[in-house]
Amino acid sequence: MRHLTYVAVLAGCLIGALWLEPFLKVGVLRRWRRLLLTLVPVLVIFVLWDLAAIAAGHWTFDPAQTTGIVFPGGLPLDEVLFFLVVPICAVLGFEAVRKVLKK
């Protein structure tokens, strides 16, 4: 089960943030095109950055704590999911704060 550690942490982040969508009605997931425009640049920049760091030998991933699904260049699926999950959680949190402060 240790190989699911990274994915479990990401799931915890999502669980901690996704409730904001229905509870506060922040509308982040409903405006999926806007969210996609936010996620794509983040994903592209950080995937390229990670690939460069892996190629230079500056960055590695513990295979015992990742799913074992690895893209060419040595980037695990878990890391790509990180670049999607964390920004989604951040946007949900940001929009929730904006919504609460407007009241």
UniProtKB/TrEMBL annotation:
Record's subcellular location: Membrane
Database matches in Pfam families: Lycopene_cyc (PF18916)
Record InterPro entries: Lycopene_cyclase_dom (IPR017825)
Biological processes, Gene Ontology terms: carotenoid biosynthetic process
Any single Gene Ontology cellular-component annotation: membrane
Domain of life: Bacteria
Domain Lycopene cyclase: from-to ranges: 5-95
Transmembrane segments annotated in the record for this chain: 6-24, 36-60, 80-97
Keywords: Carotenoid biosynthesis, Isomerase, Membrane, Transmembrane, Transmembrane helix
Pathway assignment: Carotenoid biosynthesis
GO molecular function list: intramolecular lyase activity; lycopene beta cyclase activity
Topology of the protein relative to the lipid bilayer: Multi-pass membrane protein
Protein name (database record): Lycopene cyclase domain-containing protein
Organism whose genome encodes this protein: Winogradskya consettensis
